[in-house]
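Handout, section B. The chain below has 273 residues.
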Amino acid sequence: MAVYAIGDLQGCYDPFRRLLDEIAFEPASDTLWLSGDIVNRGPKSLKTLRFVKKLGDSVVMVLGNHDLHLLALEAGVLRFGRRFGTLKKLLNAADAEELCDWLRHQPLAHYDRKLDTLLVHAGTHPSWSIKKTLARAAEVEEALQGYDYPTLLGKMYGNTPSRWSNELSGYKRLRFIINCLTRMRMLTAAGHLDLNFTGSPWRARKGEIPWYNAKKPAWQGTRIAFGHWSVLGLIVLPDLISLDTGCIWGRQLTAVRLDKRIPRVVQVRGQKS
């Protein structure tokens, strides 16, 4: 019974299937943890999403920012642009509504007590314990799964507020939680999210740090697995696993086995351009 965490798929169906062959994945006994961004950019978003959904209980996934873009497009609150062109085939499919409804009911954070590991797409706030991270994620999940979910999807866009406060409420609070869990990379010295930064942490602006380097974070001691940051690449440490190794950019798609004392890393060649 193996547990593998896999980085951002982004519609790269063929590398995904090769990776499953490499790890000898058995849906009846093994579990996949997917770090989000199942769709967009790659050539086979529809096929990828259908396949992941079909895997049923053998898959645990969290929502990424590209998954939320798909839901916003399907809800009619986001317009198509060049960066979403790969999603047109998916949204024109006969089962598009069913697929998006399934996707809308996926979590933004997942925690396994036995493995003491948290799975998120981008990261979690230094002031949030694991319990609080799951509670914050649940606030968004409740709204996303409710009848008025299009309103949330329409209001989630924007970079403000950039700093967490327990006093935040309404859609500002939900927007911050979404940005933290699905878009965050760098934090300023004052604790603000820098959501415009996309490069390597070694090229960070003065006074900014990667979210996972915050001093004495509330989650300290728990392993966190995340994707989203392809420039960062593969990191496998006792308390941190970075999974996005740029499959969509032709680099690698990576799986890390979580249920062994020494994690096993398996990689396949990424999407051909």
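Note. Residues 69 and 188 are 26 Å apart (CA to CA). Compare this with the example in section A.
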